[in-house]
Write a structure and sequence with these properties.
This is Flavin prenyltransferase UbiX. GO terms for molecular function: flavin prenyltransferase activity. Pfam families: Flavoprotein. With 199 residues, this protein is an alpha/beta fold. It is 38% helix and 16% strand. The chain has helices at residues 17-29, 42-51, 60-65, 101-108, 115-125, 141-153, 171-185, and strands at residues 6-11, 35-40, 72-76, 93-99, 130-134, 156-157. A six-stranded parallel β-sheet has the order 3-2-1-4-5-6, with helices on both faces. Helix 1 (17-29) packs across helix 7 (171-185) and helix 4 packs across helix 6.
């Protein structure tokens, strides 16, 4: 797999803002990544405010990083004319973390109602990696059917389930290990990532 250098990162309104913050920090710090297109839904903004005490859309990514990043471009979810809405724009991979069931449903059924849905649809039609880090429990039959539809269309269903075998000492460490696994899946293994050694 070729190392992705142009990443689309979307955040939707499911619980798990800490995952979004950790993956944004990881790709911003990764020298292999040269461009990050970042989109947060309106519902995600509310979750950020509740879970991380960050409010407002303006400079949200910079607030999460703690400083501006020259490789970062933030888009409004209503901006359907953004670069990532076109198949001619060379995105290497898209990650939605966390991915709400509403977002999953829209992607699975081809309802490009906002920029996140449209960018995901572009990844599917162009055969580019699309990682849906879904966050819900328990799943009802509609959720499961939508996961099947999205998977059949080419998406990877990557539930936001933390690992325990690495003995995490904090929620941040737990989130970071999950993010490391997501990034390794798209060809960006992270330095110092925990790897299971059964022996």
């Amino acid at each position: 797999m070729t190392e992705p250098t142009n990443i689309t990162l979307a955040v939707t309104g499911a619980s798990g803002s800490i995952y979004a913050a950790e993956i944004l920090r990881a790709v911003a710090a990764d020298p292999r990544v040269t461009k990050i297109n970042f989109v947060a839904s309106d519902s995600a903004l509310r979750v950020f405010a509740e879970e991380l005490h960050l409010s407002g859309r303006n400079d949200l990514a910079e607030k999460l990083l703690g400083a501006p990043s020259p490789k970062l471009q933030q888009h409004a979810e209503t901006d359907i004319a953004a670069n990532i809405a076109s198949g001619s724009y060379p995105t290497d991979a898209m990650i939605i973390l966390p991915c709400s069931m509403g977002t999953l449903a829209s992607i699975a059924n081809g309802l490009a109602q906002n920029l996140i849905h449209r960018a995901a649809d572009v990844c599917l039609k162009e055969n580019r990696p699309l990682i849906l880090c879904i966050r819900e429990t328990p799943f009802n039959r509609i959720h499961i059917r939508n996961m099947q539809l999205a998977s059949d269309a080419g998406a990877t269903i990557f539930p936001a389930i933390p690992t325990l075998y690495n003995h995490p000492q904090s929620t941040q460490e737990m989130a970071r290990n999950f993010v490391n696994r997501v990034l390794a899946h798209i060809g960006l293994p992270q330095p110092n990532a925990y790897q299971w050694q059964p022996d």
